[in-house]
Amino acid sequence: GDSVTQMEGPVTLSEEAFLTINCTYTATGYPSLFWYVQYPGEGLQLLLKATKADDKGSNKGFEATYRKETTSFHLEKGSVQVSDSAVYFCALTMGGGSNYKLTFGKGTLLTVNP
Amino acid sequence: GAGVSQTPSNKVTEKGKYVELRCDPISGHTALYWYRQSLGQGPEFLIYFQGTGAADDSGLPNDRFFAVRPEGSVSTLKIQRTERGDSAVYLCASSPNQGDWQFFGPGTRLTVL
Q1: What is the model's pLDDT at position A99?
Q2: What is the spatial distance between Cα B96 and Cα B87, in angstroms, rounded to a whole number?
Q3: What's the pLDDT tens digit per position in B80-110?
Q4: How many CB pairs under 8 A join A and B?
Q5: B55 and chain A in contact, CB less than 8 A
Q6: Measured at the alpha carbon of residue B64, what is the angle toward residues B59 and B65, in degrees to the nearest 5?
Q7: How confident is the model at residue A81, as a pLDDT?
């Protein structure tokens, strides 16, 4: 079945460091891809998405590019802040039919130190 | 406007008891999803409603789990004869239409002793 694999954490960075969180997927068709973020004590929030190959999603300084050839959707940010400390989830949906259920990776805990 | 709300935020119960978890989606959202998140894992799909009907319940782990959405708004996830393995955070999400991105509630943390 469809699945998402993301790099295991935890990831600990200093403020202003460059961030990459790797995400690869396995799917029978062409999924839409998402990054969700869960800040401490809060619910899951959509961070960014891409719906077709070569699309780049971006939000709050984060970016991810849908790479069909490598089945990847790596999350990047050029300069992280303490407020970016959270758990990040990569996810996909196949859509089609009547169900757009999300399939998630296990999550990556990011801690940014001042 | 209000987001997705879930009640209770925490529920502690004993093995074998019955529990109900409630989800209030964003007003006007027709699609509603339930997920379960175990410790250290990503959320896993349980059931999807489009309007009042369960369009896909393939993620429900067994027949102890059941969910309803009688008026196409509020949904209740019901778990009978709870087991310790049911302990998890139960998440609800809604979207305006199928295919739109999903807005998640804060979850209900269920602990079965």
Answers
A1: 63
A2: 30
A3: 999 999 999 999 999 987 667 899 999 999 9
A4: 62
A5: yes
A6: 40
A7: 97
